[in-house]
Amino acid sequence: MPVNVAIYLFDNVEVLDFAGPYEVFTCASRVHHGDSPLFTVFTVGESLKPVHARAGLKIDPDFSSDNHPAIDCLIIPGGVVTAELEKANVIEWIQQQALKTTLTASVCTGAFLLAKAGLLTGKSATTHWEDIDDLRAMFPQVAVKQGVRWVDEGAIVSSAGISAGIDMSLHLVERLTDRRLAERTARQLDFDWTENKKMRPQAHLI
């Protein structure tokens, strides 16, 4: 069965934070050339109301947070997350999904939402370089790492800013499938995959 990859959308989400991972996982399915897609990728909003990303791009979520397929891999992108941090229902939804997913990951300031949900407590994480100090100040229980593209804590993975979400997503493709597919996907995207020097062992679903 395909791995269900859900990407959460909200007003003022950073476009590449969600579009980068979306492209990586859908491209991985294309280059796989299997009988069925490896990944089913969809977006989830708090509701079905259109979301306006930073710079005004309008997106219609595929599903709402109270009515969506089961999620195997949840991606929480960044952007301006101030309003989302104050939504108890959103934080609770992230908490509940993380209990069921194989992987929950953040891009950029999406790490603040994971931290607010308690998913980074006692763990290492990273975010956009500009927000490192704020993440440390707001969530002192998180070991915030600087100068890395992503941090893999097993079930929880976080990435640095914007384009680092593509690097992390390729890493997740490798974890969920294999190295060769991740490399083929990066080549198809014409993307210079920047890796961390140390990564955790793979955990294959497919």
From TrEMBL:
GO BP annotations, alphabetical order: regulation of DNA-templated transcription
Superkingdom per UniProt: Bacteria
Coiled coil: none
Domain DJ-1/PfpI intervals: 4-174
InterPro entries for the chain: Class_I_gatase-like (IPR029062), DJ-1/PfpI (IPR002818), INH-QAR (IPR052158)
Transmembrane domains' residue ranges: none
Protein name per the record: Thiamine biosynthesis protein ThiJ
Species for this entry: Mixta gaviniae
